[in-house]
Specification:
Layout: H1 11-14, H2 20-29, E1 31-33, H3 40-54, E2 81-84, H4 86-89, H5 91-97, H6 100-110, E3 114-125, E4 136-139, E5 154-159, E6 170-173, H7 196-209, E7 216-218, E8 227-230, E9 235-237, E10 246-255, E11 297-300
Length: 303
């Protein structure tokens, strides 16, 4: 059993937590740029470990291959790379991502007593302005997490370096986490399998439905800082027009109350998340999104 001693912060860590005003702004805008949470040494380790992973080192291979696994391989060429479950497959990366400070920041923003990892994706956007895969269209992570009960999940976007518009940084649609969804609009298919123009239209239509404007905010992220966004916040990113790869991890986080729920598309087809073939089962026979092997706890408040 995990000890609460594992979820402690130093006095220096506590100085890096979001303030009450930061938490209020997150609730209003749907995203939050942190203070510096990672050192130069940790960022260097992340880059070194990612290169080792790309070269074929996998410390903990997945026992089965989920149906929609993002799993870039060298044979895929110089496209944008996405590799899921990096927090599980790489020991060196896992050790850095699982620091309690990340969970404590997320817990304050989500107003939760516990934070677990839900998923993580290693990303490399090559310096190729014309590469179509470098353009990430507008989407909200919640659309792909319909088998989750929670509406408080969030994502921590961690670049390994200073990340700005030139590199195709993440861009938030400000306040979009407060929008109501259009009834019957099925957005469960991942953006990589959808037409960019279709997703642009979904964003515009949803904004009109809510009587809202689409305000796009490219987030300039200094080295070691992290951008957190709500699971319902629309976001995307542009081309990398710099001279170097954009390296990052999207660390998807769940509050302690989150659990599996059956969910079907409009045509009755059940939605299946990649975890569903990996994680242990609950007493009711459902996938357990608290399985410590794939969904380790980052933070738990003292009782």
């Amino acid at each position: 059993m995990t000890s609460l001693a594992e979820f402690t912060l130093t006095d220096a860590d506590r100085e890096l937590l979001p303030t009450a005003e930061d938490v209020r702004r997150y609730a209003e805008h749907g995203w939050y740029l942190s203070q510096r949470l990672f050192s130069d040494e940790e960022l260097a380790t992340l880059e070194e470990a990612s290169e080792s992973f790309y070269a074929g080192r996998v410390d903990r291979p997945l026992p089965v291959r989920p149906p929609r696994l993002a799993d870039w391989q060298p044979a895929d060429g110089d496209v944008q790379r996405h590799n899921d479950y990096i927090h599980h497959q790489s020991e060196a990366i896992s050790a850095i991502l699982r620091k309690p400070l990340i969970g404590a920041v997320a817990a304050l923003l989500a107003r939760a007593d516990e934070i677990r990892i839900f998923q993580s994706t290693l990303i490399l956007k090559p310096p190729r302005p014309q590469e179509p895969s470098n353009l990430v269209p507008w989407h909200a992570d919640r659309h792909y997490w319909q088998t989750c009960s929670s509406e408080r999940m969030l994502t921590a976007f961690l670049p390994f370096h200073h990340c700005d518009e030139e590199m195709g940084t993440i861009t938030m649609v400000d306040g979009s986490h407060l929008w109501k969804e259009i009834e019957g609009d099925d957005s469960t298919r991942h953006f990589a399998q959808r037409d960019r123009g279709e997703l642009e239209e979904i964003l515009a239509r949803t904004a009109r439905f809510n009587g809202a404007e689409v305000t796009k905010v490219p987030v300039v992220i200094p080295a070691g800082h992290v951008n957190f966004h709500h699971c319902r916040t629309y976001h995307g990113s542009g081309a990398n027009v710099s001279a170097r790869p954009r390296r990052a991890i999207s660390l998807h986080l769940q509050d302690g109350a989150n659990h599996y729920r059956p969910y079907a598309k409009a045509d009755g087809t059940p939605v299946v998340y990649n975890h569903d073939v990996l994680v242990r089962r609950t007493a009711e026979g459902h996938p357990d999104y608290a399985d410590p092997t794939y969904c380790p706890t980052l933070w738990r408040s003292a009782p």
